[in-house]
Amino acid sequence: MEFLTILTPTYNRGEQLENLYESLKRQTKKNFQWYIVDDGSTDQTEKIVKKFQKESNFPIQYQKKKNGGKHTAINFAMPQIDSELTMIVDSDDLLIANATNIIFEDWISNVDSGISGLVYLRGYSGYEVIGKSWPHDEQIGNSITHTWNKGITGDKAEVFLTSVLQEHPFPELDGEKFLSEACVWIEIAKETTMFMRNQIIYITNYLEDGLTKSGRSMQVNNPKGAFLNARAYLYSKFSFQIKMKNAILYNCYGLMAGASAGELWKESPNKLLTFLGFIPGWFLKIKWVKAYQA
Questions:
Q1: C-alpha distance across the termini of the chain, in Å
Q2: What integer is the mean pLDDT of 18-23?
Q3: Can you give the pTM of this predicted structure?
Q4: Residue-by-residue DSSP string for 135-203
């Protein structure tokens, strides 16, 4: 059994997979498997992956499913993964050459602390950080209090205990194919701590048609998922600024999803901020529907 699974949900990204594959071939420690979940691609993804499987010096699993969105691909894979750790790496990104070795050493050094995983920096390159670094090069803490509340912005590279991800599946919503990972990461952060290191191990390539660059449009056109995500940020341990912003988004996306003012009030974990954010959320809904809705 491998120590680590690199899980890659992919959709029509066959050509981009080559860069990730090459980065995995360069890993100095090969105690991992690559698990690719093809979310209904119509390009040459399957053919390209079969070529990888024939020549690879590490295990590669490939499964294809009906298109349902990245979060459903993660849900599809998790029950089948038996490695100790799982790291989700997007098909258009890559890892630095010693990433799996860093993960292995940090896990062995910190596992007795009761952590649920490891968090590293992402970069545009090996030296250019996306967002901000933590104030300390190494720390163990809660992602809500140590990352979000401290304004440590930018996508991070998370490595989770596989069992933790298996215990926290993503909600799957009828008619929607996009859901931010944050709504599940928040649920995990409520219960556990992570080891955090100021080390770039994951290089991100934000494609023009990728999920990150099309984020607002994706949320407006998948409002039930965006509503759940905003609701998660109303948790009491978040800072006032984060909760207030998301109270507005909670109302905005909830109204887009067809909820009434009474239903929004009833479902809210923070009724005062939901009340204060209702009028701004209503105006934002009108603006964004006009600007983004398909």
A1: 45
A2: 96
A3: 0.94
A4: SSSEEEE-HIIIIITTT--S-EEEEEEHHHHHHSPPP--TT-----THHHHHHHHHH--EEEEEEEEEE
User: Where do the domains of the chain lie, and which CATH numbers do they carry?
Assistant: 4-203 (3.90.550.10), 217-292 (no CATH)
Cβ density class 155-186: b for 16+ within 10 Å, e for less: bbbbbbbbebbeebebeebeebbbbbbbbbbb
Place of tokens 């390209």: 48
Tokens describing residue 217: 């449009």
Sign of torsion over alpha carbons 228, 208, 20, 142: negative
Q: Which residue has the tokens 């602390």?
A: 113
DSSP code at position 125: S
pLDDT above 60: residue 282: yes
Contact status, residue 17 vs residue 10, Cβ threshold 8 Å? yes
Question: What distance in Å separates the CA atoms of residue 220 and residue 228, rounded to the nearest whole number?
Answer: 13
Q: How confident is the model at residue 213 (pLDDT cuts 50, 70, 90)?
A: very low
Phi, psi at residue 94, to the nearest 5°? -155, 170
**Angstrom distance (rounded) from CA 289 to CA 220:** 7
Question: Do 176 and 218 contact (CB within 8 A), yes or no?
Answer: no
Provide the mean pLDDT of the chain. Answer: 95
Q: How many Å separate Cα 169 from the centre of its chain?
A: 12
Q: How far apart are CA 10 and CA 89, in angstroms?
A: 10
pLDDT of residue 214: 64
In whole angstroms, what separates CA 294 from the centre of its chain? 24
Give the 3-state secondary structure of residue 104.
helix
